[in-house]
Every structure is written in structure tokens, then in C-alpha cells.
């Protein structure tokens, strides 16, 4: 007999979880309640013990209980401050230390306050505290000497970093800013400075990493949130959902934030069109892709120009939107050149033009793409297509070989590599089109006309030679035969023994057009020039009459 539980398994687990949470809450309340009944001295002893065993949060709770009983207990207030520092709550620790100093001129509190200012990069405030300490306390203090040395070093590195960024020595700027950050790890200004130096070198990932630290150090800064979102979306080309996180956090803390609301709308609008471009590109909707990216006659409304405009605006303050400082330093040159999003838009556009076989229209956008990213597949393909169109087969083969070695799964490259290799092979064989003086798309009528004209000039008595006549026959006999012409166009010369055809491919009957054209010469009773020479490869002798 099957026995069914009164509660489904998931419900049982939920009930157990609620029971555990309730028990922990009661235990915490019981512990807190029990602690609140302890004498002050025991509370302090217990808090000190918790702190010594690494339980800083619990120790902080007990110090606060003590201070509820005696708010002017400066020693407990000092311990609370140092506990807050250990938890990374430097802002609160600073407030606690300032209160300590308002109660008593306590040397340790002043040293700790100076240390907080140094770590946060507030060098002026640090200097003030150290000068006050020197006036009122032991000038030979080891802590004082150490802090003064660190302050001097940090100020020097900051000055050097600023000097190097002005002189465009960005690598040195990063080194100097990094040295200052070791002393002042909680300085948002130093992180921002190093981010700028990284960005100007094109080190976008590193620049974004520093901006992430800035948002943690300045959680209420809308500008910091916007910078991080901006870098993520425009320069790293991260997915919208990831890029939006700092903006959403900004709007969560301040739903009416003008700059964050504006950025939210901008990114949403761009992403809507970008999604369309991706879909069209993936389905080979090339014309629709171009219309979205670069609408003819209205380029400013296209996705590429709109993206450029937003990036350009980022280097200017926007007081109306509540942005009092640029998101990107105005000193950054060619800021668009660092945008991976723009590079991807160029790639979509280049692919579309190549897909439509509009090489002339593709040239501008594809060359820009190749200049931005010389490893982009479509930039390489476009360049190869341009080379092949100019019959520069060897450079095309070399370019595509290198690309193929890095993208072996890319069919678009492998198919064009085969095309270029075939073109190179054809270019090294006899050029029958050149012999007849016709383009490669010449029809049968054009071939006949060119052949007749060329044979008149090729006669030995007209300044020609037997070799020239033989070359004309070879060329015409291949190109006038659709099957042989197709073989020739694919790199297989029917007249080349190395191509698998040993000897002359035409049997020995000669060219019927050639025979028909010069039939008159045979019935006329001879050649007034007294010359005869063999035609085709047939071994047949032809007589000619000119005039």
C-alpha cells in the first residue's frame, strides 16, 4: 500500500528552512538580549575577545551597546572606530574618531584619523592632522614619521602621474598612479586618474576595472555609475543587461536621477536597433542592415552616426542632465577609435556590402574596419576581394592564408582562399584573353571578331611570325569551346601537358572557323606574298590572300 506524505517534498524543505531561520533569529535575539544584561565591563571584555578572534561585526554590536550606556566613553568609542576600520567602514570610522577627538585630545585617535585620510587620498586633511599631532604630541612618534613619509611619497607619485598624463606619457602615468594607489587604495580620484591613463593607451579592460573600484568607493555618484555603464557598453561591447547594472543601481537609489534616466533611454534605443542589425546580418538581409546602419541621404539617423554622436557628447559636461563633468576626459584623442561597439557596427556594414558584391561602396567602411581591427574577418575578406578584383592574386592568397590559420572554421575565408589560389594559378598560365585582346567576359561574337583581326596582323609577311600565329590558334581554340574555356578559367590549361592533357587537345582537325575564314586563300591560286605557314596544332598548312 502506497503512503502519501501530507506535504510535498518541496514544501517540507521550505518548512524546515523557515524553522532554521526562526531558530537562528531567536538565538541571535537571545544572545543580544543576554549581552544587554551584562555589566559594562563584561560587555567590553566580551567585545575585545570577539575582536581578537576575528568576529569584528559582533564585537562592533557590543561596543555600540556600551556606548548607548555611556556615549562619552572615548576609549570604547576609539575601539569602535578601529573595529569599523577593520570592516572597511572608513567613513563611519572617521566620524567616530572625530567624536573621540572632540571628547579628548587622544594621540592614537589623531594618528588613525590621519591614516584614514591618507588611505582615502585626502592628502590635505591628512597633512592637517599630522601638523596638529606634531604640535600637541610626541614628535618622535614612529607612527608620525611613517605617515609623513607615506604622505610625501603619495603626493610625489600623484604629481608625477598628472605631469605624465599631460605630456601623454601614459605608461609612466599608470606606473605613478599605481604607486600612489598602493598608499591610498581607497581614493576614487586616483583610480579615476589611472583609468584615464589606461584608456588613453587603449587598455579598455584595465580602465573599466578601475572604474568598477570607483563605483564601489563612491556608491552614490551618478557620474561614476554612468562611466562604468558607458565603458561597458560602448568600449567593451558588453551585453546591454550587464552594462545597465550600474545605471539600474543608480535609479534604484534615486528614481528621479536625470543623468541615469537619460542614459537608460539612450542605451535602450540603441540596443533596439542593434538587435535588428544582428538579426538582419545573421539572415543575410544585407540591404536592410545597410539601411539601419547608414541610411542613404540621412546618415545622421543611422546607428553608426548616432553611436558616434553619443560618444562625442561623453567628452562634454551636460549640466541640464545633471552631469557637471565629462564622462570621458576631453584630453582623450580619437575616442571613437576605442569603441568596440563601433567596430562591430563597421563589421556588420562591411559584411553587408561584401555580401551584395558592392566592392566600390564597401571600400570606405571596410577600410575603416580593417584600420580599427586588422583581425576582423569581414575587413580581411573585403581587402582580399579588392585585391582579387585588381588581379593581385599573390597578396590576396597571402592575406587569406594568414587569416585562415587563425580562423580555420570560417567558411567565408576558406572559400575565398580557394578562389584566390585558383586565380593565382590561372595568372601564371598563358593568358589567352590577353593574346586575343578581349576581356574575360567576352562572348562568342567578340572572340571571333578579335581572332580574325589578330590573325591578319600575325602573318609573317605583315610583321608577324609563326609563333604568334600558333599562339593565336591555341588561344582561340580554347576560348571558343565552352567546355575547354571553363577548364581554363578554373586553372586547367588544356594546352598544358602538366594539366593532364599530353599533346595538343584538339585532335588534329584544326579550327573550323579558321578554315572557313581562309577558304578563299585555297581557291585563289596562291598567296601573293609567297608565304605559307602552319595553323592551329593540326599540322594543316594554310595559304592566305590579303587584299
* CATH fold-level topology of the domain at 267-428: Serine Threonine Protein Phosphatase 5, Tetratricopeptide repeat
The tally of strands reads 2
What CATH architecture label of the domain at 267-428 applies?
Answer: Alpha Horseshoe
Q: Low-confidence parts lasting 5 or more residues at pLDDT below 50?
A: 1-7, 501-547
Number of alpha- plus pi-helical segments? 27
CATH homologous superfamily label of the domain at 267-428: Tetratricopeptide repeat domain
Give the overall silhouette: elongated
Tell me the major beta sheet: 2 strands, antiparallel
Helix amount, in percent? 55-70%
By helix and strand content, what is the structural category? Answer: mainly alpha
Rg computed from alpha carbons, rounded to a whole number of angstroms: 41 Å
Any overview of this molecule?
This is Tetratricopeptide repeat and J domain-containing co-chaperone DNJ1. GO terms for molecular function: misfolded protein binding; protein-folding chaperone binding. The chain is mostly helical. Among the domains are: 267-428, Tetratricopeptide repeat domain (Serine Threonine Protein Phosphatase 5, Tetratricopeptide repeat); 433-543, Helix Hairpins. Helices cover 69% and strands 1% of the residues. It is built from 27 helices and 2 strands. The protein has helices at residues 9-36, 40-52, 56-69, 74-86, 90-103, 107-119, 123-136, 142-166, 170-183, 188-200, 204-217, 222-235, 240-253, 258-282, 286-293, 303-313, 340-355, 359-372, 377-389, 393-406, 411-428, 432-436, 444-458, 466-479, 482-489, 512-517, 519-523; strands at residues 532-534, 541-543. A two-stranded antiparallel ribbon has the order 1-2. Strand 1 and strand 2 (541-543) form a beta hairpin. It starts with 8 loop residues before the first helix and ends with a strand. The model is unreliable at 1-7 and 501-547 (pLDDT under 50).
Amino acid at each position: 500500500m502506497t503512503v502519501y506524505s501530507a506535504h510535498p517534498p518541496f514544501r517540507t524543505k521550505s518548512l524546515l528552512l523557515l524553522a532554521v531561520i526562526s531558530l537562528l533569529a531567536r538565538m541571535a535575539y537571545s544572545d543580544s538580549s543576554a549581552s544587554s544584561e551584562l555589566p559594562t565591563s563584561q560587555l567590553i571584555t566580551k567585545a575585545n575577545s570577539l575582536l581578537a578572534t576575528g568576529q569584528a561585526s559582533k564585537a562592533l554590536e557590543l561596543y555600540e551597546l556600551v556606548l548607548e550606556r555611556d556615549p562619552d566613553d572615548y576609549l570604547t568609542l576609539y575601539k569602535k572606530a578601529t573595529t569599523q576600520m577593520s570592516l572597511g567602514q572608513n567613513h563611519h570610522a572617521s566620524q567616530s574618531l572625530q567624536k573621540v577627538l572632540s571628547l579628548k585630545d587622544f594621540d592614537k585617535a589623531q594618528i588613525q584619523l590621519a591614516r584614514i585620510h591618507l588611505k582615502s587620498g585626502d592628502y590635505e586633511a591628512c597633512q592637517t592632522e599630522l601638523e596638529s599631532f606634531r604640535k600637541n604630541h610626541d614628535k618622535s612618534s614612529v607612527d608620525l614619521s611613517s605617515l609623513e613619509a607615506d604622505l610625501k611619497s603619495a603626493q610625489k607619485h600623484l604629481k608625477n602621474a598628472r605631469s605624465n598624463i599631460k605630456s601623454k606619457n601614459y605608461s609612466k602615468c599608470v606606473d605613478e598612479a599605481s604607486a600612489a594607489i598602493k598608499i591610498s587604495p581607497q581614493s576614487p580620484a586616483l583610480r579615476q586618474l589611472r583609468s584615464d591613463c589606461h584608456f588613453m593607451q587603449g587598455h579598455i579592460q584595465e580602465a573599466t576595472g578601475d572604474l568598477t573600484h570607483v563605483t564601489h568607493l563612491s556608491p552614490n555618484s551618478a557620474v561614476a555609475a554612468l562611466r562604468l555603464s558607458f565603458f561597458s557598453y560602448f568600449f567593451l561591447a558588453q551585453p546591454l543587461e550587464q552594462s545597465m547594472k550600474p545605471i539600474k543601481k543608480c535609479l534604484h537609489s534615486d528614481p528621479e536621477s536625470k543623468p541615469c534616466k537619460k542614459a537608460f533611454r539612450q542605451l535602450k534605443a540603441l540596443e533596439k536597433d542593434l538587435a535588428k542589425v544582428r538579426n538582419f546580418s545573421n539572415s543575410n538581409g544585407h540591404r536592410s542592415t545597410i539601411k539601419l546602419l547608414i541610411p542613404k541621404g540621412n546618415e545622421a539617423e543611422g546607428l553608426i552616426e548616432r553611436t558616434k554622436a553619443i560618444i562625442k557628447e561623453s567628452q562634454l559636461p551636460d549640466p541640464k542632465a545633471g552631469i557637471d563633468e565629462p564622462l570621458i576626459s576631453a584630453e582623450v584623442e580619437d575616442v571613437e577609435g576605442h569603441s568596440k561597439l563601433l567596430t562591430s557596427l563597421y563589421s556588420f556594414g562591411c559584411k553587408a556590402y561584401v555580401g551584395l558584391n558592392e566592392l566600390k561602396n564597401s571600400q570606405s567602411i571596410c577600410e575603416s574596419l580593417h584600420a580599427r581591427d586588422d583581425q576582423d574577418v569581414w575587413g580581411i575578406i573585403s581587402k582580399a576581394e579588392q585585391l582579387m578584383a585588381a588581379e593581385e592574386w599573390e597578396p590576396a592568397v597571402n592575406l587569406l592564408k594568414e587569416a585562415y590559420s587563425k580562423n580555420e572554421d570560417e567558411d567565408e575565408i576558406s572559400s575565398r582562399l580557394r578562389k584566390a589560389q585558383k586565380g593565382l594559378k590561372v595568372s601564371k598560365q598563358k593568358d589567352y584573353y590577353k593574346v586575343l585582346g578581349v576581356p574575360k567576359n567576352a562572348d562568342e561574337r567578340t572572340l571571333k571578331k578579335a581572332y580574325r583581326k589578330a590573325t591578319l596582323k600575325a602573318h609573317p609577311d605583315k610583321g608577324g611570325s609563326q609563333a604568334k600565329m600558333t599562339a593565336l590558334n591555341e588561344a582561340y581554340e580554347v576560348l571558343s569551346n565552352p567546355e575547354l574555356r571553363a577548364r581554363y578559367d578554373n586553372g586547367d590549361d588544356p594546352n598544358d601537358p602538366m594539366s593532364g592533357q599530353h599533346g595538343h587537345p584538339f585532335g588534329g582537325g584544326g579550327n573550323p572557323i579558321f578554315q572557313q575564314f581562309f577558304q578563299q586563300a585555297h581557291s585563289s591560286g596562291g598567296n601573293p606574298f609567297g608565304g605559307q605557314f602552319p595553323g592551329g596544332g593540326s599540322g594543316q598548312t594554310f595559304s592566305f590572300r590579303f587584299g
